[in-house]
């Protein structure tokens, strides 16, 4: 077979037919077919590969977070159950053919957390009721005003109410609680008042829609609470104590990396743990969202209705404030200069630093356990005291540095060394002192986290625990 | 009149009637009426006060950000125009009574930025078309399978497609571009396939719905682009250069506060400018959202379609990295100790610090102007060079500190002072050196911002400017 590549652009192939004439064979066409075939093969191949990669990614996500698969199955289940309204004749006629609204409600209201589902359900039902009543009122007034004025009155009221409700969605207090409600208010009011112009029996229609929406939201709430519920509050709780653990790991990681670099140089787990603070830096939006939904949730687990979720945002903010400090600390890692005296100085403060930092990260882990188990820690007070003492010790050991600037040379290790006056210039000590002073600043910020968690403990009834965690001394 | 307060609980008032008997007067009832009156007065008063405060807040918001009022009016306008479908008989009958879908589309699709409106509109129309076609296909198959199997086939397909589409919304690549589309896909597919069981002429219905949705989205897109458009891209652009300006103000503020505290002690504007970096810390979620919508927008202003909005996120991240540094800097302000030698030392590095910082904040302001005008700065190269030279100068002036640790006493100001050896302990210099070394670290991070902006300049055609801003020397 001739390879398509080898055929020049305008070449014609001919064969001698039995009657002596020549007949042209349509080779260029064959070439085109070949090209199209190859092209479409690569397109289809690429498409299959893309789809395959997408499926692999989806599969990995599902394996990593089975909660998301469960949520998807729950939505499918809720929709299938609500479709029963269509299949069962008595149900379908009971809602006057408005079963569509139940399906629609399930699709838009069912969210991945119970809190979000409740927020949307309550907003939807309330806003539909309010806007429906108002719409009926406007419809009645415009009807009484006569056919000529009807569209004008309805038009003006739709314009003003829709504008006002849209604007109200920008006001922070409305936005955080009733954003979805305002949207549904505009939707229902427009539909009811405008439909009234064409549809007869509008009040029955409004009532039937309200009842189908009620059916839809009830299904959503029941299914989201009864089958493997995902509580926004519990998620927020978990996020906060995991962030505390990540911060403790980062802090430990940086101190080990700085003082005992050789021990962890090639350890990828260590590097990963060190970067944990970055999740903390970026978790504000998630925390805000979860807290917004958590307040709609009923009592669950060890959380009452109206658990002080706002305090979690305060704790989150104080955790982030410590994460900023660690971020600045990470900047010190690169700027280190290996000057002659530095090794000695580093050794001089190393123990005090490590001790202080051990208390800092122990406090963070103890706070994480306090939150995780909702049990007051009996060790917290002593840990904080010891951390503050360690900070003072560190400052004392820094205070004794001017003598150390006159570093002993290696050969003089006898009891009475003849010290050489090789003063290390201040500029070479700065990376070390900056690192240490950021650690001290971080200890102060950790005190802030302790205060925020204590405030939370004052708001809710925490159990008193005897020995929460591994002992720290 | 008797004051209600003065009447004991069980007291009865009586009067002598002419026939000699006594008659009880219903004073306790009067007291109750009084109580209810007072109570309801305070409730109504409280309600009026709350509503009044809410209105004042809304008014202030409207005055501060007229864009939000304009958006609200635009939504009102779009809804009123779309309602015309109901008022004009020929239009209403043209869409077979499905005008409701146009109203609904306008309410849910009209967002405050053009990009978000386009994102939702395109997602809605595409998803409705795809899901509608698929729904009709499933309806046809189940119809052919016979009345017995119809609900089963429809139920199973709704369950699996809804679950799959819901799960796909968690996959990052789908979530960032087609989240709304996946929701509408589930909605339309369920409605079309399930409705098919009861409604005749389902394909006409599907077509009519698609056309009303098309009408609704067209109105939204036209109105959002034609009347005072708010472009997500332009908003992102503005956010980024304003963050640069805020960062420059904060940086200047902290350096002035540290070295010339007296000059700004009582200046509230100064304190406000200093806190500007906090907006930068919290702006990640807003930036992500705006970038998500900006890529749907057509060319506008100086931005082409497919302007490299992702690069703005990189610039934003590098700006935040500098803001973290300033946050750590703010921690140094409190921990200052006034030791004898510190004043002298502070003076020693003050000029070098201020010079370096002047270049840092000038670079930030120059970057802001570069972005604002989309004009390459001719000074940027020299500014960066001079900042780096200033950093070296600062390090040299730090390097000369060991001599300065022997501070001259106040009485010895002659040409050849007999220096006293009052060595300042290192620990008292640390707050100062930490402050300085964070400033140096910040200069390195500002270099990162310059690189990110240069990358952007390489991606788009920026004009070459001669003299952008105020001269810096």
UniProtKB/TrEMBL annotation, chains A, B:
Keyword Repeat appears in the UniProt entry: no
Gene Ontology cellular component list: membrane
Classification via InterPro entries: ALMT (IPR020966)
Keywords of the record: Ion channel, Ion transport, Membrane, Transmembrane, Transmembrane helix, Transport
Claim: Nucleotidyltransferase is one of the keywords in the record: no
One Pfam family per UniProt: ALMT
Subcellular location: Membrane
Membrane topology recorded in Swiss-Prot or TrEMBL: Multi-pass membrane protein
BP-aspect Gene Ontology terms: malate transport; monoatomic ion transmembrane transport
Transmembrane segments: 36-56, 68-89, 101-119, 126-143, 149-168, 180-199, 211-232
Family designation: Belongs to the aromatic acid exporter (TC 2.A.85) family.
UniProt name for this protein: Putative aluminum-activated malate transporter
Organism: Rosa chinensis
Organism placement in taxonomy: Eukaryota, Viridiplantae, Streptophyta, Embryophyta, Tracheophyta
């Amino acid at each position: 077979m001739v390879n398509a590549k080898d055929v020049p652009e305008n070449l014609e192939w001919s064969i001698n037919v039995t009657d002596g004439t020549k007949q042209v064979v349509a080779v260029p066409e064959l070439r085109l077919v070949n090209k199209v075939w190859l092209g479409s093969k690569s397109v289809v191949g690429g498409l299959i590969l893309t789809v395959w990669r997408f499926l692999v990614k989806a599969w990995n996500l599902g394996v990593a977070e089975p909660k998301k698969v469960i949520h998807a199955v729950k939505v499918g289940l809720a929709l299938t159950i609500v479709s029963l309204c269509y299949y069962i004749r008595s149900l379908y006629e009971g809602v006057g053919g408005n079963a569509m609204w139940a399906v629609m409600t399930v699709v838009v209201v069912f969210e991945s957390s119970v809190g979000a589902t409740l927020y949307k359900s309550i907003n939807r039902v309330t806003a539909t009721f309010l806007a429906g009543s108002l719409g009926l009122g406007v419809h009645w007034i415009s009807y009484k005003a006569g056919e000529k004025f009807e569209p004008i009155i309805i038009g003006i009221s739709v314009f003003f109410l829709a504008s006002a409700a849209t604007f109200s969605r920008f006001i922070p207090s409305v936005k955080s609680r009733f954003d979805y409600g305002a949207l549904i208010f505009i939707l229902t009011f427009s539909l009811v008042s405008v439909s009234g112009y064409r549809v007869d029996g509008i009040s029955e229609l409004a009532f039937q829609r309200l009842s189908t929406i009620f059916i839809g939201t009830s299904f959503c709430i029941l299914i989201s609470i009864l089958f493997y519920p995902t509580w926004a509050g519990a998620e927020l709780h978990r996020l906060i104590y995991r962030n505390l653990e990540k911060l403790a790991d980062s802090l430990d990681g940086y101190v080990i990396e700085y003082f005992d670099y050789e021990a962890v140089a090639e350890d990828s787990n260590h590097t990963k743990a060190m970067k944990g603070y970055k999740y903390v830096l970026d978790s504000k939006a998630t925390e805000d969202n979860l807290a917004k939904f958590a307040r709609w949730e009923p009592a669950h687990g060890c959380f009452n209705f109206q658990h002080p979720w706002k305090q979690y945002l305060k704790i989150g903010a104080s955790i982030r404030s410590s994460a900023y400090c660690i971020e600045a600390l990470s900047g010190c890692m690169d700027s280190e200069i290996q000057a002659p005296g530095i090794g000695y100085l580093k050794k001089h403060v190393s123990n005090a630093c490590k001790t202080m930092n051990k208390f800092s990260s122990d406090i963070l882990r103890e706070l994480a356990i306090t939150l995780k188990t909702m049990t007051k820690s009996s060790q917290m007070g002593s840990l904080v005291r010891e951390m503050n003492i360690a900070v003072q010790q560190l400052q004392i050991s820094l205070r004794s540095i001017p003598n150390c600037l006159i570093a002993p040379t290696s050969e003089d290790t006898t009891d009475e060394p003849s010290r050489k006056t090789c003063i290390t210039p201040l500029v070479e000590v700065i990376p070390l002192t900056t690192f240490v002073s950021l650690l001290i600043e971080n200890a102060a910020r950790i005190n802030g986290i302790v205060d925020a968690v204590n405030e939370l403990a004052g708001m809710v009834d925490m159990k008193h625990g005897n020995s929460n965690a591994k002992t720290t001394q």
